[in-house]
Amino acid sequence: MMMKPAVGLMTQPSQTWTQLSELDDHQIRRQLPYIAIMALLPAIAWYIGTTYIGWRVSEHSLVNTIMPESALPLMALFYIGLVGSVVITGFLIHWMAETFGAKCIPERGILMAGYAATPIFIVGLAGIAPLLWLDLLLATAAASYAVYLLYSGVPKMMGVNEDQGFLFASSILAATLVVVVAVMATTVILWDVVAMPVFSS
């Protein structure tokens, strides 16, 4: 049951959002591990891709890989960044809910953010084969679909009408962009101070 929304949101989003909107607060809390599990997918994939498969800067360059022990803290930071972004966005959804006439416990906001991020989690599996052009293409498609899920899901999950849902979703999107930039900036700082990668020779 917990992982079923991942398939539903990718194949039948409208029907899946309707089903998810009917969950009570207790059921919502039981679904929270969904985020922790889904965020593991890109973290593990990128760990394997950057340590055992590697990537090329150009067609004629050497294959670059990161030492496995060096990649572990990087992937831990990546995982924490993914989960942290969803949790922070979820609390912002909860904080904004009353403005748009929605009733929302923090867990519902967190789950709303996590469900909307499902395409990003799934496409993160492409990290197992780190090809820059392919990853950029897939990431763009995943982000676009995540935005679609956000706009289609907010009215149902938050119990507001379409007009309020559009404004609410737009506010969430703006807040999410701020959160992502803040997390990226923090990651760069920690990368330099805590988890500088060591490349294989």
Please give the alpha-carbon distance between the first and last residues. 45 Å
Mean pLDDT, all residues = 88
**Number of helical segments with 4 or more residues:** 9
Query: Using only CA atoms, what is the Rg?
Result: 18 Å
Strand content: under 5%
Helix fraction, binned, reads over 70%
Largest sheet: none
Number of strands: 0
- The topology string of helices and strands comes to HHHHHHHHH
Would you write up a description of this structure?
This protein has 201 residues and is mostly helical. Helices cover 75% and strands 0% of the residues. The longest helix is centred in the C-terminal third of the chain and has 32 residues, at 162-193. It is elongated and about 55 Å long.
Provide tags for this entry.
0% strand; mainly alpha; 201 residues
Tell me briefly what this model is.
The protein is mostly helical and 201 residues long. It is built from 9 helices and no strands.
Helix and strand topology:
Layout: H1 4-11, H2 13-21, H3 25-30, H4 33-53, H5 68-97, H6 106-116, H7 118-123, H8 132-158, H9 162-193
Helix pairs in contact: 1-2, 2-8, 4-5, 5-6, 5-9, 6-8, 8-9
